[in-house]
């Protein structure tokens, strides 16, 4: 049974809409995450849609796959989304865990997000619900948009940061345009 699970993991990682550089991936001998089914260094996964257009790219210094728990842990991860061959958003974190069953992503440490319209978010802890596309945290956050910086504790937001609530704002530094103004095309 474990061989079948391991084979299905390798099949999904390396042959399903994936472009991995096999020569650079290294198996990790001393795991930071005990109990993982597979541990890899220099992990990279690129996802293409059915038409062969690149949608996203995930890079991590280390990746730990827990097949029985249906989750994956990444260290020093970078995630890029693409449109028309260009990067539209970027996400970086020291540590991340994807639970494939619950469709939840948990990030910790030096989190930095840039959205397609160049808003940015900095925090140390972030939850992302893949189904509702909502970001949440109870930690300190900073959002920067159109020359305005907003700091506070706690965040509830849509992934593009076009709708967000900072639970306890602590500082606003204004410059540039009003980040809350309505787009004239709406």
Structural account:
This protein has 186 residues and is mainly beta. Helix content is 8%, strand content 58%. The chain has 1 helix and 10 strands, in the order H-E-E-E-E-E-E-E-E-E-E. The protein has one helix spanning 2-15; strands at 26-27, 38-48, 54-66, 71-83, 86-99, 104-114, 120-129, 134-145, 148-158, 164-173. The chain has a 10-stranded antiparallel sheet with strand order 1-2-3-4-5-6-7-8-9-10. A hairpin with a 5-residue loop joins strand 6 (104-114) and strand 7. The protein is globular, with a radius of gyration of 18 Å. 20% of the residues are buried. Mean pLDDT is 82; it is low at 1-23.
Q: Beta-strand percentage?
A: over 45%
User: What's the arrangement of strands in the largest beta sheet?
Assistant: 1-2-3-4-5-6-7-8-9-10
Structural class: mainly beta
Poorly predicted spans: 1-23
What's the end-to-end separation, in Å? 54 Å
Shape: globular
Q: Based on DSSP secondary structure assignment, what is the total number of beta strands?
A: 10
Largest sheet at a glance?
10 strands, antiparallel
| Rg for CA atoms | 18 Å
Q: In which range does the helix fraction lie?
A: under 10%
Q: What order do the SSEs take from the amino end to the carboxyl end, as H and E? A: HEEEEEEEEEE
The whole-number mean of residue pLDDT values reads 82
The count of helical stretches stands at: 1
